[in-house]
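FAQ: What does the model actually see?

It sees only this:
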Amino acid sequence: MVAQAADVRSRPANLPTLEGMPLHKARPPLGQHFLRDTSVCARIADAIVSPPEAHVIEIGPGRGALTGRLAAKGVPLTVVEVDEALADGLRDRYEGHGQARVEVICADILDIDLPDLIAQRTEGRAVIAGNLPYYITSPILRKVFSAAAGIERAVFLIQKEAALRLAARKDSRDYGFLSVLCRLHAEPELLFSVPPEAFQPPPEVTSAVVRLRMRRDIHAPPGFIDFLQRCFTHPRKKLLNNLSGVYPRETLRQQPETDLRAQQLDLEELRTLWDTLEADPPSRIARP
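And it is asked to produce this:
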């Protein structure tokens, strides 16, 4: 879990810190907010390690706040860290020092072939975890969803606003494309909130831990995700308008659902609309 040593003189009262870890100054372009609250790390580790034999891939371990908790539990662990200095620190701490089950990879998770990495590390389904940088949360989530067939579950610490969108249901303010994309691949569960003072430097917003239990019956035919994205392109517009660039308006008007906004339909209702519209391919006027 991305974590940075805090100056003890400036830390909030009663906030546990991670002792004995080398200092590292974050590079601002990486957008790092290092988790330093050991009680939060413990709760996240407990959410990850079940069952204990699953291979864990941690994204953005930083100084190893969460890595240490997972290593102590004896789980097979691969950590992917983009910052070379942080990756070197993790290697010094774990590799070759009796931590044979901890592997450190210095790379950008977005550049890694995640299904291939999972297949090389385990014969079963992996667990993905991490403290995700706010500015690339969506790309990482999409990458994880694309590899969902090889993933048992994922546990992420992310901006609370994003966590609420993942777990949102229809007719709610937070419901949108990310919500249906998530439910297409997983069952989301919002576990708990994490205040800004649990990080160094503290972010300006509250974070939250979300657990995603990946579905085993994922059904996403070609074009369906593009269809979902188009449905939510303009949230305030009706589906008739959002889909009129793909299907003739006269075809759309035959479906009562197109008089509604996408936020008023759940995933299965949107899937039914997709199936109906795709039953007659010649009715398409363009590909999204």
